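User: Hi! I'm a student and our assignment asks us to look at how structure tokens line up with a sequence. Could you show me two examples?

Assistant: Happy to help. In each example below, the sequence comes first and the structure tokens follow. Example one:
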Amino acid sequence: MSLLAGVFMAGAQAAPSEAERARIERLIAWVGAQKDLKFVRNGSAYSPADAAKFLRGKFDKMGEHVTTARQFIDEIASRSSTSGQPYLIRFADGRSIPAAQFLGDELQRMDR
């Protein structure tokens, strides 16, 4: 069962602490500051600035259901909540990686 399903079934509302909220905001800002890549969502490619705006909006709508930056990546920022398709990061050289990996790598870098 996913975290979101568990939260809804339990009827509880979680929310990230201020420190975790800051980590999430830092991840979103980092996405927006990237160059030479595209954020692929449901088959369409978006600029980093548009991706950051989208992720911020999704976090604003769903953020009370996560408590950590890692949960934000896993439950909000890695796949479409409507289609279930994973988000991808497409680099200028044409290679793509899952957004979950891209964001997770940055989270690890931030935590060093």
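Example two works the same way, sequence first and then tokens:
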Amino acid sequence: MFEEKWDVLSRMTAEHMAMPFPPGFRGLDIEDQDMVMLDADAHGCYATRVLEGSLTE
């Protein structure tokens, strides 16, 4: 079961890292939220859910 979750997470991470980050958003803060950190936090949340088993492919 862990292997399957790890495979899903690896695929999700590879897809996420392959997508270009919009250059106009790098260094941009909206209401004190850095867009790069927001992107990283969202991916971290998805990764946690995959490992916990509560997110399907």
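Here is something you could point out in your write-up. DSSP finds two helices and two strands in the chain.
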